[in-house]
Amino acid sequence: MSFLSRKALFFAVGCICCFFVLAPVNAQQLGFPLVKNYSPEDYNAQDQNWAVLQDNRGVMYFGNNVGLIEFNGSRWELIQVPNKSVIRSLAKDGNGRVFAGALGDFGYLKPDAQGNTQFVSLLSKLPESERKFSDVWEIYVLPEGVFYRANNAFFVLKPDQTVQIIKSEPGYHKAYAIGSQLYVRERQKGLCVWNGKSFELLPDGEQFAEERIYGILPYDNNGNLLILSRNKGLFLYDGNKLKPFKTEVDERLLKGQIYTALKIKSNVFAIGTYQAGLFIINEKGNLLAHLDKSKGLRDNTIHDLHIDKNQNLWAALGNGLAYIEINSPFTLMDERMGV
Q: What contacts 198, CB < 8 A, 6 or more positions away?
């Protein structure tokens, strides 16, 4: 090969490499983030996963239909609650203790004498008459306690290890914590905030009395919130008034049915849907990336999202798990883009 031919070849390879190296999820990407999918055969449990969390050691936990899956990067372990039910929710406190919510049970994780992770139930802290309830869907750790949200009650594990019960006859649907503020949509009432004694209806919050909310995220440094609803799209909320927040993918989000959302950078938001996979948008509502079964995901249903300590994204799917390298400078271009 001549010197000029080699020089041309090196130039071409260099162009291709530069084409692949992109700023992670800060601009419209020219390719797909690298995705590693895990199937039920990989982790030896059922297909549906509901929650994702990384502990302070870097160990991953996944709420599955038959219990809690622990993954240290090479080995998978299944941890079951006493009733061997589904794990719907996970959270951790500032000391790294991991909390888990199940069907009719809630508690935390603790190593046994051999160092194996065990689930410690807090059910015995409830009066006998209060021990029959359904799924614990969310958990939030606040200064005054750990809030476990079931359909008709919050169970609050106080610092003195007693449990307070906060009931609602209409029922609660989806709770979200922003800093030390806990928000919940109370059915037939609307968007409420915990005031230290009860859940208080927010100004303009009655608009969500019958409209489901599937995400509340901090939008900016001015205290504005980004609220994601199932049937009416996205809103910005300043604490007094709601105003619509338009995106490039409003119709696709409505059709796909928003299920979960996560702020992954100061101006970047990830939105998981029930039928259309993952959308990543910026603070202006512009689409940065979209992933579904045709673009690398194992499944289009996303139940939960979590950023790990490497700033990459984990997704709990309706069928399996996905690890999405959104913080990598590399993206993949293949036949999905006509290459």
A: 166
